[in-house]
Amino acid sequence: MTGHLSAYYQMYGLRIPTQASAAWVIGGEEKPYARLTLCEIEYDQPYVYS
User: Fold this and answer.
1) pLDDT, tens digit, 9 for 90 and up, residues 1-50
2) Model's pTM, two decimal places?
């Protein structure tokens, strides 16, 4: 299995990955199965997530 991070956003001194992909490697060939894009994030919230 492989994964790639391809884009980042700088916020409050943190570098946050905003795009990623993942693939299985079968017979030496990558077979993609996921492409992810971060659309929204909450940072340092004062309550417990549920």
Assistant:
1) 788 888 988 877 888 888 999 999 999 999 999 999 999 887 776 766 66
2) 0.63
First to last CA, the chain: 30
CA–CA distance, 28 with 32 (Å, rounded to integer)? 13
Radius of gyration over alpha carbons of the chain, in Å? 15
Return the ∠ at Cα 17 (arms to 1 and 44), rounded to 5°: 125
Q: Is the dihedral of CA 16, 19, 24, 26 positive or negative?
A: negative
Residues facing 37 on adjacent strands? 19
Residue 26: name the closest of 47, 50, 2 by CA. 2
